[in-house]
Amino acid sequence: MTGTLNRRGFLASTGAAAGALTFLGPKGLKAQEGQTLRYALSTYPPSFDAWASTGSAAGAIKLMIHRGLLSYGPDGALRGELAENWEVDDEGAWVFTLREGAFWHDGSPVTSADVAWTVTEAQKPDSAALFQAQLALITSVETPDERTVRMVTDRPLATLPGWFAHYHMPILKDGEAQDSLIGAGPFTFDSTERGVSIRLGAFGDYYKEGLPKLGGIEAIVYADENLRVTALEAGDVDLIEYVPWQAMQQIEDNSSLKLDAVDGPFMYLTFNGSRPPFDNPLVRRAVAHAINRDDIAAAAFYGRGGSLAHLPIADASEFYQEDLSQGWAYDPEQAQALLAEAGYPDGFDCVMLSTAQYGMHQSTAEVCQAYLSMVGINVQLDLPEWATRVQKGNDGQYDLAVMGTTADNNDPDGLATVLDGSLPPSFVRSYGMETPEISDLFARARATFDLEERIALYRQLEEIALETTPMTGLAWRSQGYAMKSGIEGFTNLPGQLTFYSPITLEDVMAG
Amino acid sequence: MIRYVAIRSLTAIFLVWVVVTLVFMLLHLVPGDPAELLLSQGSIAADPAAVAALRERMGLNDPIWQQYLDHLGGVVTGDFGASFRDGAPVAEQIATRLPRTLEIIIAAAVIAAAAGIPVGTYAAIRAGGRVDGFVNFLASAAMSTPVFVVGSVVILLFAQQLRILPAGGYVPFSVDPVQHLKLLLMPAGTVALALWAVIVRMSRGAVLEVLQRDYVRTARAKGLGRGPILRRHVVRTALIPVLTVLGLEMGTLIGGTVLVEYVFNWPGLSGYLVAAVDARDYPEVVGIVMTISVIFVFLNLAVDLVNALLDPRISLVRR
Amino acid sequence: MTRAQRKLILPATLAALVVAVIVLAPVLPLPDVRSMDVPNRFAGPSATHWLGQDEFGRDVLARLIWGGRASLFIAVGSALAAAVIGTVLGLLGGYFRGLVEFVTVRAAEVILCLPPLLLALLVVTILGAGTWPLILALTILYTPIYARVVYSATLQVRSLDYVTAQKAMGAYPLRILATTVLPNVMPPLLVQISLVVASAMLIESGLSFLGLGVVPPTPSWGLMIQAARGSMEVAPMLLLWPSLALAGTILTFNFLCDRLQTALDPRGITAGGALWLRGGGSRGAVPRSARRAAAPKQDTLLEVEGMSIAAQNAGTSLELVRRVSVTVRRGETVALVGESGSGKSITGLALTGLLPDALSITGGDVRFVARDGEEIDLGALDEAGFRRIRSGEISMVFQDAAASLNPVLRIGEQVAEALRAHGGARGRDVDARVVELLRQVGLPDPERRARAYPHELSGGQRQRAMIAVAVANNPRLLIADEPTTALDPTIQAQILELFRSLKKATPDMGLIFITHDLAVVAEIADRVTVMYAGEVVEDGPADEVFAHPHHPYTAALLASVPEGGTDRLVAIPGTVPLPDAMPEGCRFAPRCSHARDVCRTGSPPTSHPTPERRTRCVRWKEIA
């Protein structure tokens, strides 16, 4: 599924436009629809800044209001949105052809000038855009006509279309503020009660005919996960995001509700590579072998997830390597042997950073602690609230740390953020970890358009990663949306794309 | 009297200033960078350039004393600043959030007083008896059960099992009064339970003490009936300490209803404070803390004034 | 061991049990609280896991006990630390006042302005989560509470005579604080500590619930509740156990604290209650059994014969007044005389049905002739029955007017209340009558005084107001219980004069004047009844008794009065015996210089030296 990016975006780019047509429904349907869907958000968007990384809840709202050049369809395949076609021209530049009939919520048409403006604004150093650094690689944006955008880069970039499919990279209208709520998406912003709810209405001039099927969405914040489930059960809301794992069984057992969950996000351990003992790859690999990952999936995720004993590449991906998938498998004897080899036959004391703010981080840390103590590694937990945990992670104030995240998309390039030691220090990756070979392989794969070649590069990368263990995978976690059984059309996108799922709200029909 | 209020108010303002300064300084000691946090939502590695840009925009690169003076200057002119996160004016946010928390507290206080004073009085009259023992037990149990447990059980019962109340949330009164009151019921009831226990115990103690007073015997010697004695002599005097405690308890509840607001998804000031601290949204935190401490100190002053009004023996000037 | 102390046993045992289990956790045969058994997560109770297993398959019972250790350690630790710091601040602030007060007590109050949660949040985020930061946070939180309690207690103690005396003698302030003030503030402090421990446990659980508390895998009750809340649907019992443990422990501490308060407070206000307020078939009318057709003697107003009063408590009965007989005729003033503890005040209260709940009339006849000529058996009246005759028939003036007037009601209202209680006057009439009454009792500017609060009047004026309340409904019998004792000698004389003028104005009113002051008796009484240790020892016309006392006690009392020429006061050796240690035979014998063996064997019979006089001395003839 991950490969579709390449097949669509590079090998078979001309077929993309047809995809949108399949979504056209009979026009008559719209009359009897038009209900308002009550969508339970896990948190209120910290801001409406379109390009900043403001979290998945904010992403859901952005996916209602805004559209990017591209997106992912329910099957996880890259598809066109504001752009109906995208390809690399002979000079290695990406050319996007915009669709006709796309309008901003204020009624004006979406033009290539809007796209060019978006790219130029977001690539400015002070834009605070998630993709600012990537966009900065675009040296110029050309708009030969109203419907054509040409992005020129210094070197070929296979992954560029993926940026414009991200929910934190929507296209804004030329001259709008960065937190503008005027988009080209299926729903228009109506009103908000800050911290409580956001009301949206259907956009009549949305470019996909017959969509959205809903009359509007009321996004209500339910910060407490247990209450979110209760609200769904009590009928206060129609659809909830971030279903807590402990509630998945009871939702599945409830005939009036349904659950759509995929394994996408993953938990992993990061290390402080700047000081002993975790500057030693043997010790890191010992840790990787010391933890029984099934227990993490069982205890932290109530069995909703699975063991992850290699790099977080899903087994459905063409980049998945069957023979490497147990590279970090639970093997306490090997762990002890590795520790002895590293010069720690009797183990050592260390501090594990996690957070008490999120139950899954804490539970994962507790299980890791229990297993590490069995091989003689005496772990002391440090569980500050999230903000402190982020700071400590960035500053390397830990020996090893529990993290959980999703990659930007299903392409292994998305793993660079957790693996690539050449990137600036961040709590999402190991601190002070030198990974010259891995960084090099990421760069080479990025510049390669051939799938087989990329697969080979990533295999090599995974082998090195398993050996040097700059981080270690722990568990896949199930990410679920739950809804009333009468809700049709909502799809949880596969794998890492799960947080893109609110894009399917345009297809949703409340039964 | 006016002189007294003026002096107390000045002290109060001084106190609030100390609190604000303290919180401002402590906040900057607390680890966690607002810009970094804002840009790393969803566990995404924030770009250092973006963080630096945002820090500059937030004014975090200024020396701390300058940030402090800027902020204080703003506060004096009535400008609490804007949220780091989305630039929403803090004062406006507090103005929408505060009434919601006050609503819970006042509703809870009314419920607790209405249910607590008669029960406490009755228990005092029956002191040592079975009813008294039962009431005492009930009050102690209510006092010692954490609100989040009560909240969870109440939601399980009323929203999930009986389905007679919504599971939590908030609807403005102007939009749907009935729904608003329904939603208010559970959080207010939960806060009221703990408050009720305090009031029962306080009023029981106060009534017991007043019952031993000579003037109650005098009232009996006058040939007054039970009702008038209870109303005019016993409860009226006993109410003074009870109301004092109620007032002080209400003061501590402002900013102390965090758990209830969290459990019932009630978007009040306390939850706002926690979210602001979590996000290290300094202007918001300082603004909220200032609001809370202002209300607290002036509520204390009001309690003293009401006390003086109810009890002629208290002379404000002397103190 | 007093009753209050006995009642401490149960809660103290419970608390000790909780503490013992928690302290002994390391030696108890408990499974390791960290050892996980994920495949058996949420398993129910079994032989190895009595309370089942939690979300990691850990033993719930072990975690509960160890969790209590963490919770209790934090709670007790912070309560004690805060107590020490707060006490020091409060003592210093309360003793030195001024600037010291400002930097100690007032500074501590800054903390009260901060939302507790924010404070904890700040402390824990700065110092990191864990046991010690939590103790620090809670200590900061509770210090101002102690400071306040100790501060106000110190203020009270500081002005006491013995403290002032020590100060005057040049004792060092620190010494005074340590030796005199501190012991005095101990009781409220102890109570506060137990309260704070309970509240700290609650806050600890709340903070752990928010992830700001104890660091896993160390268990704490708050953490357990937080974890269990997520799996409430799967394993509800996991929520129940820690909640029960938390509530149960706090309940135990509250319980202990209540009882401790009772034991430490000798006044025992918490043990009271009010029997008279409890319903129970209030008939409102004088019961038939209490009515009798005709009066035995024409002039008799009140006839008490052989009345006994006893304190009943848990099956035991303690006689406080034994076979007392008093007669009051219309217009007569009878003085009831005796040292404190002689039972004279209780006798007075019994006649108006105002005895404390623990006391009751256990024998004898108490007959009162009402205005309509009907004779009422006061011993058979219930509260409602008494209510009808109070104020209008029998009224009472109490000793301490300052305490007997309601401090929060205006004088006029308090007099008016008495008037309205018997449905006499209404509206404007009441106001007029109030002013008239106040004028009658000699209050200057009665219109203004009617609007005053009791604390705005002088002691003498308050007593006058009290008398106005008592005579508002023209009682047939007025009982004055030591009405002049608390007053200055000059005021005493004025009040006596007032009684005399009242008697002149209402010649039919009987008056029982209870006092220990024979000089007063001589001025006002027609008859004297001398009481000792709950018995009437002598009775007769005032002038005769004064001239020729027929009981050694009366004689001794008379001798102790400082009269004109004598400046030496002859004190009676010894003290009045306590009710539970009454001597055999004559109760005065141990203190009597005339006592013989016969006095110590049998209770002396009542003799009548003249028809109008009685004495309970076998040797009355030998006493001049």
Automatic annotation (TrEMBL), chain A:
Listed GO MF terms: peptide transmembrane transporter activity
Keyword Cell inner membrane: no
Record-given protein name: Peptide/nickel transport system substrate-binding protein
Subcellular location(s) of the protein: Periplasm
Limits of the Solute-binding protein family domain: 79-417
Family annotation (PANTHER family): OLIGOPEPTIDE-BINDING PROTEIN APPA, PERIPLASMIC BINDING COMPONENT OF ABC TRANSPORTER
Keyword Signal attached: yes
GO biological process: peptide transport
Record family assignment: Belongs to the bacterial solute-binding protein 5 family.
Record's keyword terms, sorted: Signal, Transport
Membrane-spanning parts: none
Cellular component annotations (GO), alphabetically ordered: ATP-binding cassette (ABC) transporter complex; outer membrane-bounded periplasmic space
TrEMBL record, chain B:
Gene Ontology biological-process entries: transmembrane transport
Subcellular location: Cell membrane
The organism's place on the tree of life at top rank: Bacteria
GO CC terms in record: plasma membrane
Keyword match Cell wall biogenesis/degradation: no
Entry-linked InterPro entries: BPD_transp_1_N (IPR045621), MetI-like (IPR000515), MetI-like_sf (IPR035906)
Main location: membrane
UniProt keywords, alphabetically: Cell membrane, Membrane, Transmembrane, Transmembrane helix, Transport
Pfam families: BPD_transp_1, BPD_transp_1_N
Domain ABC transmembrane type-1: 98-307
Topology with respect to the bilayer: Multi-pass membrane protein
Homology family: Belongs to the binding-protein-dependent transport system permease family.
Protein name from the UniProt record: Peptide/nickel transport system permease protein
From TrEMBL, chain C:
Similarity comment text for this entry: Belongs to the binding-protein-dependent transport system permease family.
Domain ABC transporter: 302-558
Keywords: ATP-binding, Cell membrane, Membrane, Nucleotide-binding, Transmembrane, Transmembrane helix, Transport
ABC transmembrane type-1 domain span: 68-257
GO molecular function: ATP binding; ATP hydrolysis activity
Major localization listed first in the record, in broad terms: membrane
Protein name: Peptide/nickel transport system permease protein
This protein's record includes keyword DNA-binding: no
Highest rank taxon of the organism: Bacteria
NCBIfam families xref list: oligo_HPY (TIGR01727)
Transmembrane spans: 72-96, 117-142, 189-215, 236-256
Taxonomic lineage from the root: Bacteria, Pseudomonadati, Pseudomonadota, Alphaproteobacteria, Rhodobacterales
Family matches, as InterPro entries: AAA+_ATPase, ABC_Ni/Peptide_Import, ABC_transporter-like_ATP-bd, ABC_transporter-like_CS, MetI-like, MetI-like_sf, Oligopep_ABC_C, P-loop_NTPase
Protein location: Cell inner membrane; Cell membrane
Membrane association type: Peripheral membrane protein; Multi-pass membrane protein
Recorded GO CC terms: plasma membrane
